[in-house]
Design goal:
Length: 355
């Protein structure tokens, strides 16, 4: 079942859902935020006399968001004043990859006295969630970690309206700031590990190749395949999730000539692939070995536990905040790669190497 897109403020106080109003007023916002109505008015109308701490301002903006309160001048705040709030757009907060990014962003924002407004479009309309975040967000800058928004849409919306934007875990031509990790090296590490088992054939399970993150992972996979002299099969699905991994597993493991090992380009695809192996009675790791990109605690609780490559995604989130604030402050943008290298985390799904 599809989840509805939503906007989430990370700082929670009294539940605004308790306020039963057809249309929220400034007094409703003030009551939830526990401030004077005049301060609410000054904050949402960008009054320079609005003297409030970052925490107080954030409480007000929280209440504004939860109540759906709109002021005519609120949409202009991004261009005219500092709100001490940043926006983060991503596909799914339940995905371990994105939850790690959120952790890094939230930790760094807290250290620097900023609030963070999260737009999670899950399986909903990513473009609608994006525009809703911009219209209602009242943020100083944007962090965009979505892999489903097209380059064309991003360039149009970002470049036409906002200057303080950082792409997270992705680069887009025309957007001059990004923070990524070394996906290419991560994929290579996984293949090198799988090649230690007397491997002759390998299958790579990938999602759509329409963004540079996917292309970097594919490049790392292919370079390691050549280096290890393996025969490779590639399956490309239309998403990066568990269902796509399961579909790939059912497809590959139903064939007469099965691969010796499998590389899943996301941990979610790896989880789905293991499910398919269970359904078809394929023994991991005795008959088939599998490793996936990106680590999470959930990998320890699978049967068998899943070998992964840890990527510094928490650091990526943290460094994205630093870069965005640098841009907001008038500094130069840039394309950064987190220095911390990927690390292989060997578990039961690959067993012990033969060589």
């Amino acid at each position: 079942m599809k989840q509805r897109a939503r906007i989430v403020a990370t700082v929670k106080g009294e539940k605004a859902s308790d306020v039963k109003q057809v249309r929220a007023t400034i007094r409703d916002v003030a009551r939830i935020a526990k401030v004077d109505p005049s301060l609410v008015s000054r904050i949402v109308n960008n009054d320079p006399k609005a003297s409030a701490s970052p925490a107080t301002r954030q409480r007000v903006l929280d209440a504004v968001q939860e109540l759906g309160y709109r002021a005519n001048s609120a949409a202009r705040m991004l261009k005219t004043a500092r709100t001490q709030m940043l926006g983060l757009l991503l596909p799914d907060m339940a995905n371990p990859m994105y939850s790690a990014i959120i952790t890094g962003v939230e930790q760094r924002c807290k250290e620097l006295g900023y609030g963070i407004l999260i737009g999670d479009h899950a399986e909903g309309d990513s473009e609608k969630t994006f525009t809703d975040l911009l219209e209602r967000g009242q943020v100083d800058g944007l962090l965009i970690a979505s892999g489903t928004l097209s380059d064309t849409f991003l360039k149009k919306e970002v470049l036409d309206h906002y200057k303080s934007v950082v792409m997270v875990n992705r680069r887009v031509k025309g957007v001059s700031a990004s923070v990524t990790v070394n996906d290419e090296l991560g994929a290579s590490l996984a293949v090198d590990h799988l090649a230690q088992f007397g491997t002759k054939s390998i299958a790579g399970v990938f999602g759509p190749q329409n963004i540079d993150t996917a292309q970097r992972r594919r490049k790392g996979f292919e370079s390691a395949v050549v280096r290890n002299k393996l025969k490779a099969t590639v399956i490309e699905k239309n998403s990066w999730g568990m269902d796509a991994g399961r579909e790939a597993g059912l497809e590959l493991l139903s064939k007469k000539n099965k691969p010796d090992v499998v590389f899943a380009s996301t941990i979610m695809m790896g989880i789905g692939f293991i499910r398919a192996a269970h359904e078809l009675g394929v023994d991991i790791p005795n008959t088939l070995r599998i490793a996936a990109l990106h680590d999470s605690d959930i990998a320890n609780y699978l049967t068998p536990s899943l070998t992964t490559v840890h990527l510094p995604t928490v650091e990526m989130g943290s460094q994205s905040v630093d870069l965005l604030l640098r841009i907001i402050g008038g500094g130069t943008p840039g394309h950064l790669i987190v220095d911390t290298p990927p690390v292989l985390v060997a578990r039961d799904s690959t067993g012990k190497p033969k060589r």
